[in-house]
Amino acid sequence: MLGVNQYGKAETHLVRVERDGEEHSLRDLLVSVALSGAFEDVHVRGDNSAVLATDTQKNTVYAFAREFGVGSCEEFALRLARHFVDAGGAVSQARVEVVEVAWSRLGPHAFAQTSREQRVACVIAAAGGEAWFVSGLSDLVVLKTTDSEFHGFPRDRYTTLAETSDRVLATAVSARWRHDGSASFSEARAALLDTFAAHHSLSLQQTLYAMGSAVLEACPAVFEIRLSLPNQHHFVVDLSPFGLTNDNEVFHADDRPYGLIEGAVVREGAPDPGPVWDPYPLVTNLHRHR
Amino acid sequence: MLGVNQYGKAETHLVRVERDGEEHSLRDLLVSVALSGAFEDVHVRGDNSAVLATDTQKNTVYAFAREFGVGSCEEFALRLARHFVDAGGAVSQARVEVVEVAWSRLGPHAFAQTSREQRVACVIAAAGGEAWFVSGLSDLVVLKTTDSEFHGFPRDRYTTLAETSDRVLATAVSARWRHDGSASFSEARAALLDTFAAHHSLSLQQTLYAMGSAVLEACPAVFEIRLSLPNQHHFVVDLSPFGLTNDNEVFHADDRPYGLIEGAVVREGAPDPGPVWDPYPLVTNLHRHR
Amino acid sequence: MLGVNQYGKAETHLVRVERDGEEHSLRDLLVSVALSGAFEDVHVRGDNSAVLATDTQKNTVYAFAREFGVGSCEEFALRLARHFVDAGGAVSQARVEVVEVAWSRLGPHAFAQTSREQRVACVIAAAGGEAWFVSGLSDLVVLKTTDSEFHGFPRDRYTTLAETSDRVLATAVSARWRHDGSASFSEARAALLDTFAAHHSLSLQQTLYAMGSAVLEACPAVFEIRLSLPNQHHFVVDLSPFGLTNDNEVFHADDRPYGLIEGAVVREGAPDPGPVWDPYPLVTNLHRHR
Amino acid sequence: MLGVNQYGKAETHLVRVERDGEEHSLRDLLVSVALSGAFEDVHVRGDNSAVLATDTQKNTVYAFAREFGVGSCEEFALRLARHFVDAGGAVSQARVEVVEVAWSRLGPHAFAQTSREQRVACVIAAAGGEAWFVSGLSDLVVLKTTDSEFHGFPRDRYTTLAETSDRVLATAVSARWRHDGSASFSEARAALLDTFAAHHSLSLQQTLYAMGSAVLEACPAVFEIRLSLPNQHHFVVDLSPFGLTNDNEVFHADDRPYGLIEGAVVREGAPDPGPVWDPYPLVTNLHRHR
User: Fold this and answer.
1) Closest to C255 (Cβ–Cβ): which among B157, B158, B256?
2) Which residues of D touch B14 (CB under 8 A)?
3) Residues 8-27, chain A, touching C (beta carbon < 8 A)
4) Does the ipTM surpass 0.90?
5) Is D233's pLDDT higher than 90?
6) SS3 (DSSP) at A16
7) What pLDDT sits at residue D264?
8) Which residues of B touch C158 (CB under 8 A)?
């Protein structure tokens, strides 16, 4: 029997220039569409009569950027998602994800892509008219040089880690928050950064919970936030063989392995998440040999 | 409120050499652990008394490789997962994923890592003794030069794609199948490859369904298989400006965007999946700007 | 016969924290060492008596960061390079490359790695006391929405490209400039950015030459600059099938292939480059299948 | 003054299918072109009258694949390179690099890209008719579990590395050999692999020299070979805290830093290398923060 399924065009790389007046503006988006619905026929019999081609989806992304402009990432994703479910036909649900990188202005027509951070918006629209909103970010790399401890953990036969009351804490924040469509991205981002900077950490889990709680507090429109925080280990280098002390001044930043700390903070009374946490992709290849 | 959460050491890169006799053998594994359970205290209060350090998890991986050897990836993952839940304490569920790359023999002590394919085994163990098995593979890149059509799809205002009765079909297979612990990896892999090669494709969805069905047919121990198949577009280059024909002989292999076709095939009467499809990681960054 | 050769420890990832006072500071460096000299014996006979272990080189990087601090990347590289050649022994030349990413301050002890740009410093020291300086940057991604033309190029049998008097121009700047050790990085970088932004481009080659010339003009200490500029094509999407115009507003940003435009601008009367452009690595794998 | 410069289309991804008869065949190439010559006018004045567009170069790659087929990578590169210099005009030298990945056959029309190795051919043609040939490979990952020692190296203040008479040796071979155009790729590759497997190593430098010498011995047409061998460290995990021995059985495969051992072996009386080792790209970004 056919199980869960979805399909669409992924990573359409759209650059949209606004050329009104002397000063141009620039948006740089990666747009991915996934449709689901009554698609038994194409799977079982190869009947494509219900399959809106992924090439058409790509064309729609470009055409909508011209017809309607981009607006906020959430608006653009919503317009596209509604289009695919409102067309009638087999599609009962459309998921549109937009990933944006920011460009800073060098001049009226020139820009530099100085940031490595990636902003994410995802909208899921259902045939009945309902819609769900997820916003977030990836690759927000942060580090604190102190105010981080880790001790009191259990010691079994395989435990060698020393307790510490002062360590470097570094991570690359991946966050997604579901909301009613009105949540401010910049307020959520500021809450994450301010809390990371100000929090005295007894564990990365505690920092994660504090960061998530701060977003819920700052953004009433947010129902739930999920965070994935790799613990990017910074090891104090042993310089004693060279007659040198090292009081948390010289570190080796290691690549692998890394701790992976993940968790959600949910507002009490939050509505049902609907399909927002349904897996996309169905198969995740997070870990791979290089 | 704290929502779903998990933590562990990811991507411990273990190489295990067996040195019995003149001919050595070699295993090359990436091991990732994720534990979940009663971890409210560490999130809310920073109390680490229940938190088995991820460093300890890493040590355990190395120690078990020495004490017990590796065996099959599934055996190794199961032994580790059971260890973490059987220790008592807060852990109610342990997820261990092993990703292996194969090495081919050059001599009694020398090897070449000729393959780019990655083999995956994932075992989830619960405190009560239950265990779930998922096996799979990633980066299995396949292509067929004909026997692939795509036509009969609907045409709306944004459709420009021409119908075709002969195209190149290429994909990088990611597959995961849940089973009772006894499924043969090589039989599942052979079913995927044989079906891809032999199937006359009317759409990638149909090929996906045929590949998944073939695995269920070949492997009675498999309950369900999930496939994620990027449609790696090969475009026929228009050589007419140069006075040349191009009857599906010269292609431009494009990078982005790509179709992403995903689906599951489930055996009738399959048991409940339990936690095997629960999201890991919680936040997926599949699409990102480069 | 043994030909050109060099060896060393690559990509030692050093993070150096200054903890003087309430406000900490942070440096994040990737340090790579390459030594060359009289190393016939190790190659031909496996005699390691002249081979300073690459592990020792790594230790030296960490120890020097503690003993002397980092200072400018050029100072740090020079101190290390001199150390390796002054030790006597077989080393006649030491090359030390430092790649730095910047962190911006969130608080007295907290930082965000907001930039994707990579700053490079490379110092080569010879046994006789001479030293050469190269500075530069990678991954400086820039784009202009207009002020770029491309026409007047020859047309042969295989030419289909239309002439244009208005296109998007985008590139990721890689630059290296050799200098006397006193050149200001920020002035060189500003000259690159300002010229890119202000230049009316008739070809990327012309823009390259203007950018390089501007650095020579702004920085008297610079003898020569080499630039490698991938032409990251932004194609105007044909929206006419959908009844829409597209006057340079909606673009597809393509990944591959790309133009690769490279060139040097040299100050008249510049001294001999010495070893600064000698190949490192000896074998370059710029282009590879993904 | 304008210094060294070159330009061209990089990474044209060509897939060529031969459809003669029932059994198809498949070639998968990444083709990069770099032209140099009298290009002062475009750099200094933006005059494009000598600039064969990189788009035209791409078209030529596809058209030649149709008109002449691919043949050996060296033949294909030579035909293209000669075309660009024989056209007259400003081009005095053309460099064409072809990187191929192999596909293995699944059926008459189906293939799997099982190997991760990349085969390289580079031909440089000069306007006068001369041509130079370089062949090689990248990403050939090899490992030996014993027959590798490292001791007798000097110990200074910063040396902590223990001597060893038995270690794991692992590397990813990058090799380029210049030859007269008639060298057999498979014989060169076999000489590299056989020597790596059979050689008792006292240092990676010694292994490098032995591998290079073996290629010169096996292939009379080869003048010189350059090898770049990262020493991918495999560290013996200390299991003594767990009451376990570890006699080279359990290893941590580390990512960074790594040793980078590079060298050339040159045949006595080899002709002048001409332009074959000229830098491409002009700026190498080998090391970068991730």
Assistant:
1) B256
2) 250-253
3) 12-19, 24, 26
4) yes
5) yes
6) strand
7) 98
8) 242
CB D13 within 8 A of CB B237: no
Strands C258-266 and D12-18: unpaired
Among C54, C83, C145, C234, the one annotated catalytic: C54
Checking if the pLDDT of B114 tops 90, the result is no
Q: How far apart are CA B260 and CA A281, in angstroms?
A: 9
User: Which residues, in sequence order, are bridge partners of residue B202?
Assistant: none
Tell me which residue of A43, A282, A10 sits closest to B136, measured CA to CA: A282
User: CB distance from A155 to chain D under 8 Å?
Assistant: no
Instruction: For residue A234, give Cα distances in angstroms to A168, A249, A255, C102.
Output: 6, 11, 9, 17
Which chain A positions have a beta carbon within 8 Å of C17's beta carbon?
Answer: 145, 168, 248-251
Among B32, B39, B66, B153, which would you mutate to test the A interface (most chain A Cβ atoms within 10 Å of its Cβ)? B153
Q: Is-catalytic flag, C114?
A: no
Which residues 156-215 on chain B approach chain A with CB closer than 8 angstroms?
Answer: 156, 158-161, 174-176, 201-203, 205-206, 208-209
Predicted confidence at residue A88, as pLDDT, reads 79
Q: In this structure, what token pair is assigned to residue B260?
A: 């992403």
Q: Is D215 helix (H, G, I), strand (E, B) or coil?
A: helix
Residue in the block written with tokens 């008792």:
D200
pLDDT in tens, D74-91: 999 999 999 999 987 899
**Optimal mutation site among A250, A256, A288, A290, interface C, most CBs of chain C within 10 A:** A250
* CA distance, residue A256 to nearest chain D CA (Å): 7
Q: How far apart are CA D272 and CA D224, in angstroms?
A: 10
pLDDT tens-place string over residues C226-272: 999 999 999 999 999 999 999 999 999 999 999 999 999 999 999 99
- The subunits that touch chain A, with at least 3 C-beta pairs less than 8 Å apart, are B, C, D
E strands, D145-289, where? 169-179, 222-231, 234-236, 250-253, 258-266
Domains contained in chain D, CATH given: 1-129 (3.10.270.10), 135-275 (3.10.270.10)
Per-residue confidence band for B118, with pLDDT thresholds at 50, 70 and 90:
very high
The structure tokens 């006649």 sit at C92
Burial A222-251 (b: 16+ CB within 10 A, else e): bbbbbbbbbbbbbebbebeebeeebebbbb
